[in-house]
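Feature request, filed as a ticket because there's no other form

It would be nice if the structure record came with a short human-readable summary line next to the tokens. Right now we just get the raw output. Example of a typical job, pasted below so the devs can see what we mean:
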Amino acid sequence: MIEKRSHALTATMAASWLVVVTGRYLLWLEYYDRIIEQLILGIAFVVAVLSTSWWTQRLIRHRGDIRSYVAAGAAVVLCAAVVVLPWNGVFGRTWFAVHHGKFTALAQMAKDGKLSADMPWGGWVHLPDEFDVLHFDHLSTQDVPIELYPGRVLTMGLSNEEVSENMFLYIYDRPDAARVSPCDLTATTFDDYWWCSRLGDGWWWLARKSNYPNVSLIRFDSRHSSTISALNSGVNERRGRGFFFPVLSIMDILPGTSP
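Raw output as currently delivered:
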């Protein structure tokens, strides 16, 4: 009976850590609009820590040899790694590597001007179904020019917020597109809102800063009011809350936003 209970708790420990690691890697499960997923991950983490604590104590108490202490130490390292590992960057880089072919194909479509415009006035584009895996079907993809600089950017947000928690970004139509960082393009707010990590081939992974400016607190003048109103109603209801266009509208760097 005791042995069966021990096996059951060990299995619980392994399963809970699997849920936690998977949830931390698939970081979109932790976004603000994933309340149920956050609750599940929180419960799984508590169960994982408690079951691991029980498992290490039992192992040391029953064996007490060097191997038990090594195993206990490994368990502690696992707990610490899950907490401190930069899962955000790990996800962005590995997701890009695994789906490199799709990212390359999408970039080529953008350069060839073959992306289907959904709402042209806002730069919204509709991606073919084959690319759903890249943005988790959030339908918040935009292809827009950067008016203060040469070139264009293709952005795919991964969360339904005005300033997306994470996004993939592709710069093209400029000679230094493969080298220039979006965070080096001053006055575009990229450096204010996100940390930029190079993925390669013109693609970047953007992680939102924890102290990013609150868009809702910015005071818009009359020339922006209609645009912001439209974005916060029809656009946001259809596609999840926009992130790139409203931000650029604030900075007057998209066509049609100047007085």
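Something like this underneath would help us a lot:
The first strand starts at residue 116 and ends at 119.
Residues 21 and 82 are 7 Å apart (CA to CA).
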